[in-house]
Write a structure and sequence with these properties.
about 240 residues, 11 helices, about 15% strand, globular, alpha/beta, binds pyridoxine-5'-phosphate, TIM Barrel
């Protein structure tokens, strides 16, 4: 069964654009649950540009679905995660000036630091996920430091598809496919996400080792036209068709 994690960050982005209480990310999470989402993902960024600390409090208090808390590997975020103990913590690289998470985490280059960083999170019962590219060196490093999950970054694959650079897109897809197989063979659970749409989701959903997709921006964008529940149900149908 391929799980769908719905990333609700951009519900908060719209809210923050006007400083109103609406649209409410918790309401979005409840609609996602009714529409068949298996989890909720939220990225608490250092600059709080979308999800806020109060959103995380509200989600942890009210949500029945598992929360996947995305965050940078900083002391501040570790303390927040240890206080809340969400189901999963996904570590992502974060640059203040970037529009979205641009690349994967350099696990191979920061093994000792990351091993120390994730140890208390693992002890607290959080499933630790590392958001990485499909480079075998990164996947092997993730396994070595004891992560439970790797989330493979599908952003480059999606961008190449949008730009019509199809040979490069297919090469990127082959890398993701091989990366998923390698990660699975090392005992890592494989997730994938970033930039996925109705048009790009199928080949990723068809990778047999992938257990979960985390999708946000496109679903929130689509919900302007069809409603969030319908956008999620259609994504689920795309995923299920590809899996079958
Ligand atoms: N997975 C991770 C680790 C992410 O950082 C993001 C973006 O916050 C996503 C998935 C979802 O990406 P998108 O919003 O482009 O669907």
């Amino acid at each position: 069964m391929l799980r769908l994690g719905v990333n609700i960050d951009h519900v908060a982005t719209i809210r923050n654009a006007r400083g109103t209480p609406w649209p409410d990310p918790l309401r979005a999470a409840r609609i996602a649950e009714q529409a068949g989402a298996d989890g909720i993902t939220a990225h608490l960024r250092e600059d709080r540009r979308h999800i806020s600390d109060a959103d995380i409090d509200a989600l942890m208090e009210n949500l029945t679905l598992p929360l996947n808390l995305e965050m940078a590997a900083t002391a501040e975020m570790q303390a927040i995660a240890l206080r809340h103990r969400p189901h999963a913590v996904c570590l992502v690289p974060e640059k203040r000036e970037e529009r979205t998470t641009e690349g994967g985490l350099d696990v191979a280059g920061n093994q000792a630091m990351l091993a120390d960083y994730i140890a208390p999170l693992r002890e607290a019962g959080c499933r630790v996920s590392l958001f990485i590219g499909h480079d075998p060196a990164q996947i092997e490093a993730a396994a070595r430091i004891g992560a439970a999950v790797v989330e493979l970054h599908t952003g480059a694959y999606c961008d190449l598809d949008t730009e019509g650079r199809l040979a490069e897109r297919d090469a990127e897809l082959a890398g993701l496919t091989q990366g998923a197989a390698l990660a699975d063979s090392l005992g890592l659970e494989v997730h994938a996400g970033h930039g996925l749409t109705f048009d790009t989701v199928a080949p990723i959903a068809a990778i047999p080792q992938v257990r979960e997709l985390n999708i946000g921006h496109f679903l929130i964008a689509e919900s302007v036209f069809t409603g969030l529940g319908e956008a999620i149900r259609e994504m689920r149908r795309c995923m299920d068709r590809a899996r079958a």
